[in-house]
Every structure is written in C-alpha cells, then in structure tokens.
Amino acid sequence: MHRERRSSVPGAMVWTSTPEGRDAGPGTGLVLPDGCMDLLWRSDSREVLVAGPDTAAYASPAAPGVTWTGLRLAPGHAPALLGVPASELRDRRVALADLWGAARARRLADRIEVSPGAGLEGLVAPVPQDAALAHAARLLGSGHPVAGVADELGVGVRTLHRRSLAAFGYPPQVLARVLRFRRAVGLLRAGRPPSQVAAEAGYADQAHLSREVRTFAGTTPSALRPAQPSGAKRSTAPPSGSSTVA
C-alpha cells in the first residue's frame, strides 16, 4: 500500500509504502527516473538511505510488512543538505551514515524513528533550495533550450553544465529529458493515450516517446497506463502514487 502527502518542505513529498501480498518480493516495484532525490527510512533497520538521481528504472527491494518512508526532494535540493554533488550519487542508494558518519546518523535515527515523515522533514527544513537552480529546472522541464536557460541565469553554457551535474546529477540536456519523461509518465498514468501524451509532453511523435520510455523505464508507454476492466471507462485520474510502478 502506498500513500503520499505534500511536505512542509517546499517542493517535496512525503510517502510511505508497505508491500503486501503479490506486491512484495524482489523487483516487484520499479522506481522511475524523475530528477528527484529521496531520503529513505526503512522501519526494520532504523537506517536512513539516500536515493540518488536515476538514469534508468531501479528495481526496489520489497519485503512483506516492512514499511518504507521517504521524503522526495525537488530536483537540485538534496546536494546542499548532503554536502555531496548529486553526480556522485547518480544511480546509487547510499547509507546516510556513509556521508555523515555513524554517530551522527544514529542520533538522527533516534529522532526519525518516533515519526519518520516529520523526522525526515525536520532534517531538511533548515536547508533552503537554491532559487536559481530551481528556476533552471523549471525552464529545462518546460522545454527551454540549454543556451537560453544559461542566458536566463546569466552564466555560460559550460558553467550551467557544471552546476547542473553538481545539483541534479545530470547534464542539463539529460535533466530536460528526464523531466519531460516524468511529465509523460504522469499523463500516461492518468489514462491518456500515448499519441496524445507524445504531443502534450513535447515529443516529436509517438515513436520518440516510445524510445524515451524504453530508455528510462525499460518498457512501453502502454505498460505505464493504468489497467482497466474490459469495457470500463475512467472518469477520474488515478492517484499519482510515486516514482514507483508495480
């Protein structure tokens, strides 16, 4: 079972997930690239993990009865908190103790265990997001060219490239693709047909959408759409869930 809510941390979401029945077992959940980084708390190990920015679908381990709580941070927010460039965490899951030391991580675990969601939020709250980087992510995600985004920020393209790797874990061109893919996933999960999603999300055509979905998710656009009983009509969009598909 998966639930999520908006966080008190700007641009972040708090989510909880407890696999049950057929949803449990290795690889039953695929975490899709979305440009975000997550802080993860696993109920049975009292350990905070950092999920770096992904470039491909990640098979999430799922054990019955084990609750995961996560704080999904907006693109570019986590590195200022962690003190580590996002590029060093790309496609990795790392124990916070490895970044901050075991003693500090244990002290944080004692606070987070009482209320995991609020505890993770309290960890992040004192560190504001870089407004310029947040603006860059919005521009890239809405299809602005890299050179135009660099001009908007008043920096050169090479500087934008360097700052993008440190903040987001990707070059700006890749961040733009990941954010466009995230938008497409949301539309597909809302039940939109792939041809319409391709046009709305800014792909050249449906074949372009299919190639990008294959690259980032390892599947087809149709596989990301919600299953419906034969003949059923969907009048409302399904909940967004998270970056995870089951």
Automatic annotation (TrEMBL):
Task: Please give one Gene Ontology molecular function term for this protein.
Answer: DNA-binding transcription factor activity
SUPFAM superfamilies of this UniProt entry?
Homeodomain-like
UniProt entry keywords in alphabetical sequence: DNA-binding, Transcription, Transcription regulation
Query: Where is the segment annotated Disordered?
Result: 1-26, 214-246
Keyword DNA-binding on entry: yes
Which InterPro entries does the record match to this protein?
Answer: AraC_XylS_family_regulators, DUF6597, Homeodomain-like_sf, HTH_AraC
Write out the biased-composition intervals (Polar residues): 237-246
Q: Domain HTH araC/xylS-type, which positions? A: 130-227
What protein does this entry describe?
A: AraC family transcriptional regulator
